[in-house]
Each structure stands twice: as structure tokens, then as C-alpha cells.
Specification:
This protein is α/β, with parallel strands linked by helices. It has a six-stranded mixed beta sheet with strand order 2-1-3-5-6-4. A six-stranded parallel beta sheet has the order 9-8-7-10-11-12, with helices on both faces. Helix 1 packs across helix 8, helix 4 crosses helix 5 and helix 4 crosses helix 8. The longest helix has 16 residues. Bound molecules: NADP nicotinamide-adenine-dinucleotide phosphate. NADP nicotinamide-adenine-dinucleotide phosphate (NAP) binds next to helix 5 and helix 8. NADP nicotinamide-adenine-dinucleotide phosphate binds next to helix 5 and helix 8.
């Protein structure tokens, strides 16, 4: 594959931003596909986001990723939103196209593509997914599951009100966090979207005894790669999917939007990112 002659610039914007793995991922692909370009990490505090983006666009940036704490605010700074960004209520990718700011959200794509790639035989249609957590990442996970046609989403969160805010369609049933062990019997797919189990955080307290053997278990936490939840599930004989693929796959449509190439997730890229994996995104 040969590159374009134009030098293309993109960046992740966050506050803080030094922890972000996005520069490693995108610069790896720029090198792999021999493109002329660079991907930066730029720290912009929330009160300077609008002006900051304005300045970077005038410097010729092709687009941006947004990370904590900008994903929701970025929606208001776009001229148009794709359907995923609109439904999730957050923008993780902006493309500057003919002067217009197109807001996208690729997190649902990343989550679903990770499972489809790792477990091609898993059938989402008609299944029951049990989702732990109702933070920012859970919104994208739920949107992805609904798009794939799951029959039911059993959703629980320590703070029940936050889960209730995500119950916008009849397929989503909220239940109390204390009941999480007992509801596992209904799950075909179990997803941890909380930060529990991440390095430096408490482990997820979950008794898997009632989880059916057919259930697929995935954790979007990827540092450590094999979380306590995944280890317990594997010991029980359940199939599992780690969280690193969600991070890598969500980056692909953004790279394509800016650089015109849909990149691959390769073992070399995964190794590069895991070698430097930080608990935070
Ligand atoms: N693999 C990937 O590509 C990817 C993408 C995004 C995020 N992530 C990871 O996913 C995790 C969540 O990210 P996020 O952006 O959704 O964070 P967030 O918006 O801060 O949400 C955190 C979630 O964890 C729950 N939680 C935190 N501490 C808890 C505790 N002690 N007991 C019970 N629940 C607890 C919160 O419950 P409350 O609402 O009750 O506080 C909330 O549901 C992080 O570890 C992040 O690194 C991975």
C-alpha cells in the first residue's frame, strides 16, 4: 500500500492526555501503511476546548479523537453527528470534511468488532446480555448490543439511577447491584464495563456459580489483560474475550476517516500496546 503525498495531522485531545494509547496506535499505522502524517496528543482543559479545536483546525488538522473529559462536550462542537454519536451522546472522533466538523462515535463498533473477531461463532441476535456498569463506556456497549439485535439487556450499576438513565428502550431491564450474582443464570453474554478489576482498582466481586457454561464473558478493562473476572470464567469453562481489541478496533474507523485506509489490527500492534498498557485509557 502506498501513501498519499499530503501530510495529514490528527490528534487525541484530553485533559490529562499523556496516558492515551491512541498516538501509539495511529503512528504505528501511519508507519505500517507508509503514509505522510503524524498523530499527536494534545492537552486542552475543558474551558478552552472550543477555542483549542478552532486553532488546531486552522493549523490544518484532519481531525481528532476525544478522551476524558471531552467526549460529551465535543457533541456541541460538531456541525453534524453520525447516528452512533447521536444515540450514545458522546463523540470520540471528529473528522474535518470540507470545513465541516463531523462527529462520530466508534466505541460501539470497537466493542462489537472485538467480540466478532475473537469469537466469530457467537450469535448476538436474540441473546440476553448482562451488563455490569453504567458509565461512559457502558453507553457505547449498550448501543452496540442493541444494533446487533440482542433480545434483552439486564443492566446493573452500583448507582442505580445512572443505570435507569440508560434504560431508554424496552429491551433494557434494570436490576439492583446486590442481585448481580443471582441474575447470572439468565445471561448468554456477560460484560464488565465497570472499572473494577483494573490495575489499582478493587477486583469485581462476582460469584459465577450460576453463570451458564454457554455464556461468553468479556471485560472491557484490558490492564491487566486477563482480569480476575476472565480468569474465574475460564476456570469455570466459559469462553472469554479480553478488552484490548475494543481499544484497537475503535481506532480503525477514525484512522480511515482521516487517512483513507481502513487499518488492520495485527498481533504486532496488540503486543506494542500491551507492552505499554496503562490502567487508564
Ligand atoms: N477496552 C476499551 O477500549 C475501553 C473503552 C472505554 C473504557 N474502558 C475501561 O472501562 C472502564 C470504565 O470506563 P468508563 O469510561 O465507563 O468509566 P466511568 O464513566 O467512570 O464509569 C465507571 C463505572 O464503574 C463503576 N464503578 C467504579 N467503582 C466502582 C465500585 N467500587 N463498585 C462498583 N462499581 C464501581 C461505576 O459505578 P457508579 O456509577 O456507581 O460510580 C461506573 O459504572 C475503565 O476501566 C476504562 O479503562 C475500556
Amino acid at each position: 500500500m502506498t501513501g498519499t503525498t499530503a501530510f495529514i495531522k490528527a490528534a487525541v485531545i484530553g485533559h490529562p492526555v499523556a496516558h492515551s494509547k491512541s498516538p501509539l496506535i495511529h503512528n504505528h499505522w501511519i508507519n505500517q501503511y507508509r503514509l505522510a502524517g503524524h498523530y499527536d496528543a494534545i492537552d486542552i482543559p475543558p474551558d478552552q476546548l472550543a477555542n483549542g479545536i478552532e486553532g488546531l483546525i486552522s493549523e490544518g488538522y484532519a481531525g481528532f479523537n476525544f478522551t476524558i473529559p471531552h467526549k460529551e462536550r465535543a457533541c456541541d462542537l460538531c456541525d453534524e453527528l453520525d447516528e452512533a454519536a447521536r444515540l450514545i451522546g458522546a463523540v470520540n472522533t471528529m473528522q474535518i470534511k470540507e470545513g465541516r466538523r463531523i462527529g462520530m462515535n466508534t466505541d460501539a463498533f470497537g466493542f462489537i468488532t472485538n467480540i466478532k473477531t475473537a469469537r466469530p461463532g457467537f450469535i448476538f441476535t436474540g441473546c440476553t446480555a448482562l451488563v455490569l456498569g453504567a458509565g461512559g463506556a457502558a453507553r457505547a456497549v449498550i448501543q452496540g448490543l442493541l444494533e446487533e439485535g440482542v433480545a434483552k439487556i439486564l443492566l446493573t450499576n452500583r448507582t442505580r439511577e445512572k443505570a435507569e438513565m440508560l434504560a431508554t428502550v424496552p429491551q433494557i431491564e434494570i436490576f439492583d447491584w446486590e442481585d448481580r450474582h443471582d441474575r447470572l443464570g439468565e445471561a448468554d453474554l456477560l460484560i464488565n464495563t465497570t472499572s473494577l478489576g483494573m490495575s489499582g482498582q478493587p477486583v469485581l466481586d462476582l460469584r459465577l456459580a450460576l453463570l451458564p457454561k454457554r455464556a461468553l464473558v468479556t471485560d472491557i478493562v484490558y490492564a491487566p489483560l486477563h482480569t480476575d473476572l476472565l480468569k474465574k470464567a475460564e476456570t469455570q469453562g466459559n469462553q472469554t474475550v479480553t478488552g484490548i481489541g475494543m481499544l484497537l478496533h475503535q481506532a480503525r474507523p477514525a484512522f480511515q476517516a482521516w487517512f483513507g485506509v481502513m487499518p488492520d489490527v495485527t498481533p504486532a500492534l496488540e503486543k506494542l500496546i500491551l507492552g505499554t498498557a496503562d490502567p487508564a485509557l
